[in-house]
């Protein structure tokens, strides 16, 4: 067998050598040239100059100049965004003066698509691009956030936390898990682009339908975003600098009652519930027992709460907050003016970023090197992202026929975050802490809820300050090496090996506390570290040939992927001798109570073969076939392989004779396609029955020991060896039009995307035990929608120009099947609601729909209660629920779907108006028709939710027998079915908004002036992001994320806040 | 020609790579899990033994987090449901317990689902032992014991489900995902199969075992007796109980008996004493992050942790009615006529009394067990000093003035017998005793009431009371008793069966207060409706949250089968599970 391989290999090699020899004898010569705009003779920077039929090429420098070695009689293809591509025959000249005609049409731009590059006019799939300068318009620590509103069909839900990961969805949801798009960076697949400096990005292409994306079959079903980073230019060294510095304003926080009002409304709540003492008055640890609630002078003195000046407990000599010295004794003055906790946990935070790019090279070698520094302090104390990146891309040409290159990026980040969307994070604590509590006690110790009557939140300023030295470091290398060989004229072979290697390290402390009612009893140190790697080896052969009116491009490839392999370890330990940062190690913690865990993933392996044929007839009729076959280690041996075909076609109607003379149509193309894409993102253990030895849930002190256990094991997973590919069938119909002398582009797409064999792990009856249930191919889902992009550009007056770019995204998602006997599952995997989940995923409804009782009003009086359907806990001023089934009783059967977090429409409008060197840009982003559950209101609008916490100022307009028109229920200390214990529509608010993501004024120095100060180009700008948001949403930010099956619930969302930024772009 | 060499090299590499890739793609695409075992690994001696440990491990009801909802202590279903305690804390925290306390909860209440899941996880783990054992090559002399222990646990978990829901599916080792028979019906009475499991264990297991935490012959006997008691099969229960009393030992050969000190049953330092017939073993600082402690009681500590035990959350607050029950007559006997809730018989509390205002605890006669069962102001709270009253209570108007005590650790034990790896100190090494020897004695007393001699009844009850009478079992404040403890045995014969029955039932209430048994005792005696409605009538005069609540028999004799499980057991719209009547 071995011998056969040998012979085979040898044979192949010989054959290939023959091909090579055959074509290496062609002569080459060196040419130089300059590319300018035919309109104003300005040099065109960054134009691609390529030898037709090969991938030999270069990019023009700032002077529009290029040099290139070309074969004899070569034809050059010169292209650049905004210009019509031009073919130039080299002939005998060695210096070329090339004038490009402005097309101003995006239809002619070169687009990087799956494994290849195409002109937009050749594209038959649904493909969108984002310009590099649009991408970096709004600073963000993660390039994915910068895509928001830029691409029709792309939805981005993101919080304001530095370095946050967003929910990025292309055309809605195709699955219950694994809806993250696949990113292809310089040909290497990845699911995270958080370490990429967006200033290093050259092109961004979003592949939305099967026709364009199924070439990535295995993991394409959620769409693919193809990114290429900057390459070196031939010519003299070019240095670019992009820098900005700005300030982020936290804005206004929550509108809560003042301390006196809080006390007064506490009396209202207790009186309304009849909770009064023998003297007829309520009693409270802080507010006394009088007719009116009275604020004390001190909320805490030793063990006494609610004390007044003169009380002997207010004894400074007894004060102690050092555990080692003895019992804690705090004296905390009441803050009668009220603490604005949001203000206390936030600050005006600086944001800056600096990027330097160096680019240069010659015929033999070219390089791009980028350095990036990004430092965003969060508006919440001690949240920040510091990221350092280095990118080094280079390419070498060997004897014109072979190109070898690499793209590599090294990134380091330090990014401590708070747990977003959580009732215990600093944002949530800001609306939970009673304003009477000051931040500090009388001696500068922390103040908190140790004072009775203030319930159990914890001082968020103390928490964030104690966490100051907690670190979350990550280090990552990502990139590839590749070699390309032009085997003969039309055939290019390419091999690329790439991937990523990352490591992370986190350490910190959860400090022991003294100031709260529910204190943390120990200093707990944690340290965690791990590494991971992934790699992809891709081998492709590209063929391109024109036979008269037939143009054929072909691609075949073979690819092996390992994704997500790695290991991690984490440990905890308690109570080191001191908390000082440099003393903290697990070794220095006390010997008992240490824990250590480690875990790993063998990685997901994928093996693929794929091919693509693009056929163009008479430059009018376009046809494209794609076929990919993937095998994945995520599936059992029975169903490991999936095949993903796609076919699409296009008709450039404008090329037809009958339209040739219609002058206002520059380009009109009808596109359509059908195809199949796959998703295999299930747990790679899904195929196995597994058992685990868990120190937590299967170990047991069978010998009666109080401090040690015996190892035990329990079944951890039921396997499904028959699992197979989730497939998604997409039909896409699109229209591209360029009209009115290239001043108007319209790109329209309609799609219908059905996911079959959707992988879903239905909950099983408890009789099978508490194991991880097998994921099986049972569910299905349907998405339909329309993507629309309209670009209008032009001039008015002599020196004025404008460009408007509008994107519109709609989608409709519907779950069409779950499993036999399973009609729904609740979204309780994420966030934390104390009254059960608000979201339900049910057949016939969109993903993450809001479910519960619909509030149809408030009971107005006892008669109203009597005449309404029977409802537990009903009473005047309480919620009146809809009797959905009309049985005159409110039961769980009356719960309905009352809202949907999926927006009906999202849209971005980018408008630039220019006058000479000035450009004014405004980017508006809007979400319409989305709903948000403002779960924070459960804490702030209902007294018994957590009595003694802060109260929303809105309760001033709560229901009373006199204020019967109120929407807010009666303020009372009663917790029952009709008050605060059920998920219902009261919490739902409109999540629609219009936001000015960016408003920017820039000035570019005239070329002459900048040259006199030694620069090719100099642009300065001032910008403000999130200048205004128009919304009815009462929380901090309606852009509430989550997970696919449970999003749009505001459990305490880190808001996006306003930034003011000064910046400069310079080219040397 | 240099480039040709490069080309040749590259192409050769490419071709080789393609061939190599293709050749090894089969193994390339098989990735074994990390840190997990497969079916074959566990069908071995070691595998079966450790699966069995895993089946014991969920005795605490803790399957994936600190699942206080499913705690085997049954603090919600047995004690709160039985009128021993209020949910406590403030009204909104764990609001799902409010309707349980008011007997008006819906089948959709998540507490029931969590309890169901934990209980049936226990069943599944026991069955997994049996499944692996059937395939495993184990020492033949070990096989019977391994099998019997698994059957004991399976019987135990089903018994737990049975007393809560009555109509339960019985799941044995033939039930399997692959066999697609896991939607098990609950139409057949599970008692015979529960009895069969426990009887097999009783018949097979030896008295002496390698470790004290294992079920031995006598533990099996106790649960078999318990199963009989729940069916009023006194004739079957009586001889087994007598055998336990006569010769029962724990797995280490320690003969069963009552602890001299009542409080030693609730102390991690004296765990697995002679009174512990079968217990959930709790351990801390063992690398398990507190999950092997007594996690079901994590919420059940005084609120406000400066100088107080735990660190959370002020739940599980004893009722005034329970406290009053400890009132004794001049003869040191309980007020069997129920007048303890009347007038001056009621025990004085600090309800509504500010922390700074003076307060003197009740000076009347009390059963000393009160102060091991209930934390109340002015009485030493273990070694934490005097209970300070309202400043340890989260919201008196919602939970009343009392704190739980039996699950609380001593200050001297903090960080030694409490787990430090979590935010709270309220994860303790205190065992929860599932069957205490006192429990056995009182069951035996019940049997005597129903089918035996009233004198024998008195003898058993007095054994229990005599221990409480011993000053070693009293709470002391310095050298003096912390309160006016007056307790004695029944020194005259019971006049009639009804009085004897009342005395036994009352004794169980007092002896086992706050231990999760009350509700189930009331139901099996058929007294739930009358007793609990009387309790509501009294307690709601103090606690607004019970106002208007009503216990409806037979509906409320059992808790509703979780709607989620009914839904999950459906095939073509018809569920294998039937709901309990009237839900």
Structure, described:
- The complex is a heterodimer of chains A (1068) and B (583).
- Chain A has 11 helices and 55 strands.
- With 1068 residues, chain A is mainly beta.
- In chain A, the strands form 12 sheets. Chain A has a 22-stranded antiparallel barrel.
- In chain A, a hairpin with a 3-residue loop joins β21 and β22 (365-377).
- In chain A, α6 (426-432) packs antiparallel against α7 (460-466).
- The longest helix of chain A is centred in the N-terminal third of the chain and has 22 residues, at 2-23.
- With 583 residues, chain B is mainly α.
- Helices cover 40% and strands 5% of the residues of chain B.
- Chain B has 20 helices and 10 strands.
- Chain B has helices at 2-23, 25-28, 39-42, 45-57, 75-80, 97-101, 110-135, 143-165, 191-204, 217-230, 234-247, 320-325, 370-373, 396-399, 437-451, 454-469, 497-511, 518-525, 528-539, 563-568, and strands at residues 85-88, 276-280, 315-318, 374-375, 403-404, 432-436, 476-477, 480-481, 570-571, 574-575.
- Chain B has a two-stranded antiparallel ribbon. A two-stranded antiparallel sheet of chain B has the order 2-6. In chain B, strands 4-5 form a two-stranded antiparallel sheet.
- In chain B, a hairpin with a 2-residue loop joins β7 (476-477) and β8 (480-481).
- The N and C termini of chain B lie far apart (89 Å).
- The mean pLDDT of chain B is 92.
- The interface between A and B is large, with 138 and 137 residues.
Helix content of chain B: 25-40%
Strand content range of chain A: 35-45%
Q: What's the story with the biggest beta sheet of chain B?
A: 2 strands, antiparallel
Give the rounded overall mean pLDDT of chain A: 88
Amino-to-carboxy terminus distance of chain A? 61 Å
